[in-house]
Specification:
Radius of gyration: 16 Å
Strand order of the largest sheet: 2-3-1-6
Bound molecules: 2'-deoxyadenosine-5'-diphosphate, magnesium ion
CATH class: Alpha Beta
Shape: globular
Largest sheet: 4 strands, antiparallel
CATH architecture: 2-Layer Sandwich
Number of domains: 1
Strand content: 15-25%
Number of helices: 7
């Protein structure tokens, strides 16, 4: 089994329902390593890029609102990278299938997800579904320096006019 990296996002409903501990405990069953984590607010640009493969779906506008936290008054998500043998399918197994009604009741989506009356699947967590998707998503959500492992090639560059926030 080859080592793989996969992106996990605990979505705003997961934070609102205080499920981060439960989900991380479930993911610990995989024996994979966490090699990055951050809590952040998702802006529209990141949301649209993350879900760009779904932009023609009727539920796309709701999906963007959902991941940005607009449906929960909760604009945080927790993003993590898990790494190890067969990481993608191990994490998808714990997550359960996309539709929470069809997901194994013991999976995270089966136990905690729901379907909104609009039809949107509110399914608590995201998990990458292929190595190519994982690489695309990880590069979208994390900088090389935020990952405690050299996953993909990077280069060093000097940015003179780079605006950076520093503590006062
Ligand atoms: P997954 O998150 O299992 O990889 P996906 O990438 O196809 O599934 O879709 C991303 C999210 O969009 C999914 O987690 C919930 C929502 N979604 C997908 N298909 C849907 C559908 N048919 N109806 C409502 N929401 C859907
Ligand atoms: Mg997907």
């Amino acid at each position: 089994m080859a080592n793989e990296a996969t992106l996990v996002i605990i979505k705003p409903d997961g934070l609102k329902k205080s499920l981060t501990g439960n989900i991380l405990s479930r993911l610990a069953e995989t024996r994979l390593k966490i090699i990055a984590s951050r809590v952040l607010q998702v802006d529209e640009k990141l949301a649209v890029r993350h879900y760009e493969h779904l932009k023609n779906e009727p539920f796309f506008p709701d999906l963007i609102k959902y991941i940005m936290g607009d449906m929960h008054g909760e604009n945080r998500v927790m993003a993590l990278i898990y790494f190890g043998p067969d990481a993608i399918s191990k994490v998808r197994q714990i997550a359960g299938v996309t539709n929470p009604e069809k997901a194994d009741p013991v999976s995270v989506r089966g136990a905690y997800g729901r379907i909104l009356t609009t039809g949107l699947f509110e399914n608590v967590m995201h998990a990458s579904s292929s190595p190519d998707e994982a690489e695309r998503e990880i590069k979208l959500w994390f900088e090389p320096e935020e990952i405690a492992y050299e996953l993909y090639p990077y280069q060093e560059t000097i940015l003179n006019a780079y605006k950076k926030k520093v503590w006062k």
